[in-house]
Structures are given as structure tokens and as C-alpha cells.
């Protein structure tokens, strides 16, 4: 082996996580664990109604309460004209922006006042004393009532339409529909359910008046964009802002963008000149922390007599709430771009409308565009039933096969290095599809309701704009310790382990010598953070690239020290050896010591020290794929669904750490189980949120989930290590597989299933013929 | 508001605090005693993240006032780690082995709850494990690694006890 090449020693292994010991011992550092000298605590006063006119906010009783430091309302914190945008999204196309409600409230949970006190208990006491006088107005709660001459959610705009993908004339698609043997239309609804990280949002903001510097501790998905955001928002140069994030208790998209609540706390800290902490409570998180899904998609399929899918049309309608987070407001384009999925669909036209409503704002949530898979994969089963073809067979007839690649979809996206046909077959084999069908025939004769469902998807890892790059600075310190500094934002993704595996291999260092430092703008190079399933695939590219360069640097110095040819040297486990001379060797720490302490002894042209900084640019698109298959039994008496088996066959390319890959799949699948069977954010007809605790908003527990089974197909992707994104796929594909299984189970009853959640009472009603 | 003195034994050490009667045990542990391993995920007794042992029983520390723990023995997740720096107890080691955590926020609650469960039920079957875990919520793992972790911990625990016997 020569310089630049390294042994794959740790990559591919289920290395135990570097993060775990501290987290298991209760020694993590989450945002609420941070205490600053002189720190005060914030609590919000929120609108109890969905829409109304603010007559007055009386803060005097609260302000007079001993221990209350300040009470802020819109007049104190709203400063018009603040630039409110993320680099990735740009300033255009946002809902109107204000931190606190001023003349009117626009959803139940809208911020009316912010109380800062010496303790959280006192802040909540103060919040209770704030007297808010609101004249309620009839709210707009769903797209159907938001259209036409409905009241305006945002009076600054003349429409509730947040975004539109207009229906364009498509004679090519129309022609196929006109001559197709089968045309099928169905509309699929997906209810409102939420990311629900176990750690709510939170922020600790310290704005020192004298130096005019902001130190911010966040619970988020990355620090650098947050710093840039606040720099723009407050008009303060980036060098005066330091953003830090320690351990983060999950996010799933919810914490990716700074939101009004956090900005208001930062603004309050600036006014007060003392640190302020705000930790969102669970009811706030459920009411106002950001909602997701809540869409419907009408799908039309044109198929030939043999079941070949010839053309499709879709129309997506979205409820994006009052103040959708930047970049999450509309999924019209994203969902439409991804809709063709894993099938040889030649003609396709998509359109849609997104509406503002007087409900909590849309935020990003694990596969924000996933309605396309939920709808497409259900439609495959609906079409299969219509044509009298088994749904597995219909998928086989249409799935993209290896010989079709590279394949350009009807929206012009080109796939390569994917394996949808292989994962379909592997999933069918793992779930023992034919055996289940035989069992099902018998079970149906016995009066049992058992079903099988599948779902395929292609997960895009998009790398546009700032998402395209990631940087790694690798420092071999004088002691031989290897520090890897990156702008990543791990919040459960295990990057402290997987990045270290990559660096250990490509540098040739001992695993225990390598450490990832992230989550601090003062220490790390710019990176957009974790989002869009990008971290393992793109951050690893930077880590690998910088490791290869560092390895060459180390071996060049070692060659001079050993009087050997660099091409004859290799490094493994932090030890440099010479080919053919196993006794000769140098430790990495000896090279490091020389690099820093004896710069005069280095070969000519070699920089002193051992520090390498490189930025990796990823390919624009990188696709992973998977097939999910599950079996269920529906209890005829109660409508309760029991999941019998759940199988995932996926292809995320080379796996850095299979244990971590399977953990990501499992988490996503179980979020889908929650979404289909348990979780539902409900508003009453006046716009009051009803599911405001974990007693009403039900998450799945260990008692509701089966042991998941996995199969892997490995088709290396276009990144240096052949890795692909896979963080969102579990949550994208599972709802359709589960609904399909329930539909199949209920098929003997002639029941039409097109919406979720499939709670026992809903299924009982379906079985009783109540729709 | 009047504050009251509380004296309790936490992880084997006698600790004193002076708190308002309305302060939860969770906040007392986190804010007054600096034991931030106990986490608050809902503050209404459902998620289980704040679970601690009070006189050997698993308790939601968000539903108990600190003053109610006066005179009690409390064990938090910090007290379940080994004595040596960096060392872990058998259940913690099992969770490490089986990828029983991702973001780690719910983890202390699981570790404490399962500790109490295995004390009561040292050789559980899968149904018992799932039922015991159903009082704690996790959003990252889909419970897969947690269930495997409990199976492994039960085995490790039995082996350790047999080795000691």
C-alpha cells in the first residue's frame, strides 16, 4: 500500500458509539444543562385563540411581581424590517414576519408577551398575571375554507394562497390518458402529525452590552447558519456572535431554523444585558413548536391492459399554518419532483396549492415532501386491486431495473447507482411474500383480517447551494491526538463515531486517537448542519478528503525522518512502517512532535505543524432507495391493528456503520407507525388545539412496535466513500406500507381506506361501513 | 414563597437543599444539586425521561415535589455508573453494546426505569420487557436497540450475580 491509500479497517464495522458513555452516565450537556452567571429565565404568554383582534395587553401586575425582571410585548421587541431568512432559502417568498403578535393573533399559540424573571417558576407566575384582551374572529383552519373569499390569515396579503404550482397544459400527458386501457383516480389524505423530539426547543442567550457580543447556546441542527441568521437579523458582524450547541435531544427537522420564540429571547437578552434561558415546555412544543404533514394528494394513473404505468397526474393541497418556517412552507415543488419515484413512469404532470391557515406553522419534518410516497405507493395498491393484479406483481412490472440505468424520470431527474428492483425482491423474500399470501387465504377463510403492504421509494440527497459543501480541518496535535473540526450538527446521528471511523481509516490513525469537534462557530469551519440526510454522505467526503491530504503530509515527514521513500511507507493504527522492513517504524506522535517542535528538520517545502483544512463539494444529487414490507392483523371486534412483521430492504451505498444505519431506519419506521396509528394533532372547529399533552398526543411505545428486520443491498453512490443519505427514508416509506397492509387486511369487507390516522375507532367505523 | 430545608441521600451522598415547596424533585436535582442527567421531556408524567429511584422505587421526578423526598434515598442515572472515571454499570454497558440510544435525551429515564424493572423481574421475557418499557418514550431508536439492550442487560446481570455467588 502506498501513500494516499488506506486500509478499510473501521469503515463498515458496527463500531460502538463514541457518544454513548457520557449520555448513558447522565453526563451529556443539553441546552437546559447550561447555566450562566446572572442568568434569568423566560416564559411566553401565548394567544388562547386562533384568530382575533388584540384589544390590549396589560402587563402591570406581572411587571410588579417580585422576581420578575421584565415583561416584553410587541412594542418592545418587534423591529420592522429585520431580514428574516436563511441562506439556503433566500429572502423571498416568506410569510409576513413579526416576533410577537401586535394588532392581531393568527394562531392559538401565537406569542403575545415574554416574561423574564429570576427563575422559571417566577417567570410562569408572571406570565399568568399578564392580562390579554382579544376579540376572537372566525378562523381559517383548512385549505377548503382558506380559498376564495375567506378571511385573510395575513391581512398584509390579499390571499391565503402561500404557494402554487399551477396546472399547465400538458397535451403529451393528456394524450396518454385519453388512450389508456385503465384510468384510476383517488385522493389520499395525510393528517397533521409532528416531529416531537424528546427534548423540546430551548436557547440560552447572553448578549454582553459592553463588548456588544452575543453568545448563544442552542438546541438545533447546526451552529453556523444560526450565527449567520442572527448576524443578519440584528445587523451585528458575525465575529461578534458565537453559537454553541452541545448534545441535542433530537430534532427531526423541527429545530433546523431559528424561530420567533428563540429570536425573541435573544432580543430580550440584548435589551436586558444579562443572560436569558428559555426552555420550551411540552405543551408549547405541541401547540406552537412547529407542525408537519397535513396534506392531501389527488393521484390519477393511466395504465395499459397489462398494468404498465403509462402516465400520472397529481394535485397536492397543503395546510402550512400561519408562519411556516422558511424553506418548509411549501413542499409543492419538492414532492412533485420526487413523485415518479422508483417506477418507469414516462409522462407526468404535477400541480398543487399551499394555504396559510390560523393553525400552528409548518416546520420541516423527516422527509417533508413524503406525501409523494404516501400517495404513490397507496395508489399502486389501489390500481393493483382495480386491475386484479397482485400489488407485488404490479410493482415488478413497473419498477426501474438495472438495465434501465441511468434512468431519467418524467421530471428530468437522472438516477444512477440505485437498486429499486433488487430491494423490492429482497423485501419480498424477507417477508416471505408468497407464503404470507397462502397463509392469508387460509386466515380469511377462518374469518381473520390479515394483510400485507409494501412501499418503495427513492430518497434524494440534494446538495444545492450551501448544502453542497462541507469542510474538515484535521489537526494532528503535538501529542499525536487527532482532532477533526467540522461544522456538522449531530443530534442523534452518531457523527462523533462515524466521522471518526472514516478519518481513522483514511488517515491511518488508531480509532481512539481521533476525535470530532463540532457545534461551535468559534472552533469549526462553516457547515450548513445536519439536514436532508446529508451528514454521513457529505461530511464524510470532507473528512475523507482532508484525511488523505494529512496522511500524505505525515508520510512525507516520516520518510525524511526514516530516510525512506514516501511511496514505501504506510500508516495504520497511528504507526508508520516501511514496506519490507517490519522492524523499522515510527509512531504518529513522533512525527507530530517533529512537525511542531523541530520545524527546521522538516524536508524542504513541508509546512510546519500538522494541520489540514479542506472543503469538499458533493455531487448535486445522490439517491438511496428502499423497499418496505409489513404484515398486520386487524382485530374485527376492536379495530386494533397489530403489526406482525416489518421488513426493510435498503440501499444506502457503502455503510460506514451498519448499526447506525439500522438505527436510523428503525427510528424513521417507528415514527411512521406513530403517524399512521397513534399520532394526530387535532384542532376543534374554533381552532383550539386539543392534543396538547402526551396523554392526548400519543406516541408509540415499545409495546406497539415489532422487532424490525433489515436487508441491505449495496450500490456505492457518487461520494468519495460511496455513501448515500438515508436519515429520512424510514419515515418516508413506512406510512404507505402500513396503510397498504391495513387496506389489504380489510379488503374482504370492501372497505376503502384513503386517509389516516387509522385509530381503532376509525377502523371500527370503516368496518361498520361508516365513512 | 417560604423555602424549606430538605435533606436527602443522593447516589450515596447526604445532600442538603433549601427549596420552595412547589419545586419538583426533578428541578431540585437538576438546579440545586447539579445533577443534570435527569431530564425533563414532558413535565406531566408521561415520557419517563425524569425517572429516578426514590427508596428503590422508580418515580417520575417531575410529579414529585423536592420536599417530599426529604429523608429519602434517591438514585439518579449518575449514580448507576461505575466508580472509576468513564466506567458504566451493566445496564449502561448493555445499551452501549446494542445501540440503545441515539440523541440520548430519554436514555437516563430508560436506564433508571429498567434498573428498577430488572430488580423486580431478573429474567424477563419479551412481552414483559415491552410492557416494562412502555412507560418511557423514545423518539429516535424505535425501541429496537433498547429492547435488545434490556435482553442483554438481564443476561449480563445474571452472569455477574452468578460470578459473585
- Assembly classification: heterodimer
- Which class of the largest domain in chain A in CATH terms? Alpha Beta
Q: Can you tell me the CATH topology of the largest domain in chain B?
A: Ubiquitin-like (UB roll)
Query: Any idea what the CATH architecture of the largest domain in chain B is?
Result: Roll
- Name the overall outline of chain A: globular
Q: Roughly how many Å is the radius of gyration of chain B?
A: 16 Å
Largest interface: A-B, 55 and 56 residues
CA-CA gap between termini of chain B? 53 Å
The CATH C-level class name of the largest domain in chain B: Alpha Beta
CATH superfamily of the largest domain in chain B: Beta-grasp domain
Per CATH, the architecture of the largest domain in chain A is 2-Layer Sandwich
Any idea what the CATH superfamily of the largest domain in chain A is called?
Aldehyde oxidase/xanthine dehydrogenase, molybdopterin binding domain
| β-strand amount of chain B | 15-25%
* Number of continuous helical runs of chain B: 5
Q: Enumerate the spans of chain A where pLDDT stays under 50 for 5 or more consecutive residues.
A: none
Average pLDDT metric of chain A: 95
Judged by helices, strands and strand pairing, the structural class of chain B is alpha+beta
Notable characteristics:
heterodimer, A: 771 residues, alpha+beta, Aldehyde Oxidoreductase, domain 4, Aldehyde Oxidoreductase, domain 3, 4 domains, seven-stranded mixed sheet, five-stranded mixed sheet, 20 helices, 28 strands, globular, B: 165 residues, Ubiquitin-like (UB roll), DNA polymerase, domain 1, 2 domains, 5 helices
Amino acid at each position: 500500500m502506498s501513500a494516499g491509500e488506506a486500509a478499510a479497517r473501521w469503515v463498515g464495522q458496527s463500531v460502538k458509539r463514541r457518544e454513548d458513555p457520557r449520555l448513558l452516565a447522565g453526563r451529556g450537556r443539553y441546552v437546559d444543562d447550561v447555566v450562566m452567571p446572572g442568568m434569568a429565565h423566560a416564559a411566553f404568554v401565548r394567544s388562547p385563540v386562533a384568530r382575533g383582534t388584540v384589544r390590549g395587553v396589560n402587563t402591570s401586575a406581572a411587571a410588579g411581581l417580585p422576581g420578575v425582571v421584565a415583561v416584553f410585548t410587541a412594542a418592545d421587541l418587534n423591529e420592522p424590517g429585520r431580514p428574516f431568512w436563511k441562506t439556503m432559502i433566500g429572502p423571498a417568498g416568506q410569510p409576513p414576519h413579526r416576533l410577537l403578535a401586535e394588532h392581531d393573533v393568527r394562531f392559538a399559540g401565537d406569542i403575545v408577551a415574554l416574561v423574564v424573571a429570576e427563575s422559571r417558576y417566577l417567570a410562569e407566575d408572571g406570565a399568568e398575571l399578564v392580562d390579554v384582551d382579544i376579540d376572537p374572529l372566525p378562523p381559517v383552519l383548512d385549505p377548503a375554507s382558506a380559498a376564495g373569499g375567506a378571511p385573510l390569515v395575513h391581512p398584509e396579503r390579499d390571499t391565503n394562497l402561500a404557494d402554487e404550482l399551477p396546472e399547465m397544459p400538458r397535451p403529451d400527458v393528456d394524450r396518454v390518458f385519453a388512450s389508456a386501457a385503465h384510468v384510476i383516480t383517488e385522493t389520499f389524505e395525510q393528517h397533521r402529525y409532528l416531529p416531537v423530539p424528546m427534548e423540546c426547543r430551548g436557547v440560552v442567550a447572553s448578549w454582553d452590552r459592553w463588548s456588544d457580543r452575543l453568545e448563544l447556546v442552542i438546541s438545533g441542527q447546526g451552529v453556523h447558519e444560526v450565527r449567520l441568521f442572527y448576524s443578519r437579523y440584528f445587523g451585528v458582524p458575525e465575529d461578534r456572535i458565537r453559537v454553541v450547541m452541545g448534545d441535542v435531544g433530537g430534532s427531526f427537522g423541527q429545530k433546523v431554523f431559528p424561530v420567533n420564540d428563540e429570536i425573541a429571547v435573544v432580543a430580550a437578552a440584548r435589551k436586558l444585558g444579562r443572560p436569558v434561558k428559555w426552555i420550551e415546555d411540552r405543551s408549547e412544543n405541541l401547540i406552537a413548536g412547529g407542525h408537519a404533514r397535513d396534506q392531501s394528494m389527488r393521484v390519477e394513473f393511466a395504465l395499459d391492459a397489462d398494468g404498465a404505468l403509462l402516465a400520472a397526474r397529481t394535485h397536492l393541497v397543503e395546510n402550512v399554518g400561519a408562519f411556516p418556517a422558511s424553506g418548509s412552507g411549501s413542499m409543492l415543488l419538492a414532492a412533485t419532483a420526487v413523485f415518479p419515484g422508483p417506477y418507469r413512469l414516462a409522462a407526468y404532470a404535477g400541480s398543487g396549492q399551499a394555504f396559510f391557515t390560523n393553525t400552528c406553522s409548518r416546520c420541516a419534518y423527516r422527509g417533508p415532501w413524503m406525501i409523494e410516497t404516501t400517495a404513490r405507493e397507496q395508489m399502486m395498491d389501489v390500481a393493483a386491486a382495480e386491475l386484479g393484479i397482485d400489488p407485488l406483481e404490479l410493482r415488478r412490472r413497473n419498477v426501474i431495473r438495472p438495465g434501465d440505468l441511468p434512468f431519467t424520470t418524467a421530471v428530468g431527474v437522472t438516477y444512477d447507482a440505485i437498486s429499486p428492483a433488487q430491494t423490492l425482491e429482497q423485501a419480498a423474500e424477507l417477508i416471505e411474500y408468497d407464503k404470507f399470501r397462502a397463509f392469508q387465504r387460509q386466515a380469511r377463510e377462518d374469518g381473520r383480517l390479515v394483510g400485507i403492504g409494501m412501499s418503495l421509494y427513492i430518497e434524494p440527497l440534494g446538495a444545492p447551494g450551501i448544502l453542497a459543501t462541507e469542510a474538515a480541518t484535521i489537526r494532528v496535535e503535538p501529542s499525536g491526538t487527532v482532532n477533526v473540526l467540522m461544522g456538522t450538527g449531530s443530534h442523534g446521528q452518531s457523527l462523533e463515531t462515524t466521522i471518526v471511523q472514516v478519518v481513522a481509516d483514511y488517515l491511518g490513525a488508531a480509532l481512539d486517537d481521533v476525535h470530532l469537534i463540532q457545534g461551535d462557530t468559534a472552533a469549526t469551519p462553516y457547515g450548513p448542519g445536519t439536514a436532508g440526510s446529508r451528514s454521513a454522505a457529505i461530511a464524510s467526503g470532507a473528512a475523507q478528503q482532508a484525511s488523505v491530504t494529512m496522511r500524505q503530509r505525515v508520510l512525507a515527514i516520516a520518510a525524511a525522518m526514516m530516510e525512506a521513500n514516501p511511496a514505501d511507507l504506510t500508516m495504520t493504527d497511528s504507526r508508520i512502517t516501511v514496506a519490507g522492513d517490519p522492524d523499522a517504524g515510527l509512531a504518529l506522535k513522533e512525527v507530530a512532535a517533529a512537525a511542531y517542535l523541530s520545524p527546521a528538520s522538516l524536508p524542504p517545502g513541508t509546512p510546519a505543524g500538522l494541520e489540514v483544512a479542506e472543503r469538499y463539494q458533493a455531487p448535486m444529487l445522490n439517491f438511496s432507495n428502499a423497499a418496505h414490507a409489513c404484515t398486520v392483523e386487524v382485530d374485527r371486534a376492536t379495530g386494533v391493528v397489530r403489526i406482525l412483521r416489518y421488513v426493510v430492504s435498503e440501499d444506502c451505498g457503502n455503510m460506514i456503520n451498519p448499526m447506525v444505519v439500522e438505527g436510523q431506519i428503525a427510528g424513521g419506521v417507528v415514527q411512521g407507525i406513530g403517524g399512521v396509528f397513534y399520532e394526530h394533532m387535532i384542532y376543534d372547529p374554533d381552532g383550539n388545539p386539543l392534543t396538547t399533552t402526551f396523554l392526548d398526543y400519543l406516541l408509540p411505545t415499545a409495546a406497539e412496535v415489532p422487532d424490525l428486520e433489515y436487508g441491505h443491498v449495496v450500490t456505492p453512490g457518487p461520494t468519495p466513500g460511496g455513501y448515500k443519505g438515508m436519515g429520512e427514508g424510514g419515515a418516508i416509506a413506512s406510512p404507505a406500507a402500513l396503510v397498504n397492509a391495513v387496506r389489504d387486511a380489510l379488503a374482504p369487507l370492501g372497505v376503502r381506506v384513503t386517509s389516516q390516522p387509522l385509530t381503532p375507532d376509525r377502523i371500527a367505523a370503516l368496518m361498520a361501513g361508516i365513512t | 414563597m417560604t423555602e424549606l430545608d430538605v435533606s436527602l441521600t443522593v447516589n450515596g451522598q447526604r445532600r442538603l437543599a433549601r427549596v420552595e415547596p412547589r419545586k419538583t424533585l426533578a428541578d431540585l436535582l437538576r438546579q440545586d444539586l447539579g445533577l443534570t442527567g435527569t431530564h425533563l421531556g414532558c413535565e406531566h408524567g408521561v415520557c419517563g425521561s425524569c425517572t429516578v429511584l426514590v427508596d428503590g422505587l422508580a418515580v417520575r421526578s417531575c410529579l414529585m415535589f423536592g420536599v417530599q423526598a426529604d429523608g429519602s434515598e434517591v438514585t439518579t442515572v449518575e449514580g448507576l455508573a461505575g466508580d472509576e472515571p468513564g466506567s458504566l454499570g451493566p445496564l449502561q454497558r448493555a445499551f452501549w453494546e446494542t445501540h440503545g440510544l441515539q440523541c440520548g435525551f430519554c436514555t437516563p429515564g430508560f436506564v433508571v426505569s429498567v434498573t428498577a424493572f430488572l430488580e423486580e423481574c431478573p429474567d424477563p421475557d419479551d412481552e414483559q420487557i415491552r410492557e416494562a418499557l412502555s412507560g418511557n418514550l423514545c423518539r429516535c431508536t424505535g425501541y429496537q436497540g433498547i429492547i435488545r439492550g434490556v435482553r442483554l442487560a438481564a443476561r449480563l446481570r445474571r452472569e455477574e450475580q452468578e460470578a459473585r455467588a
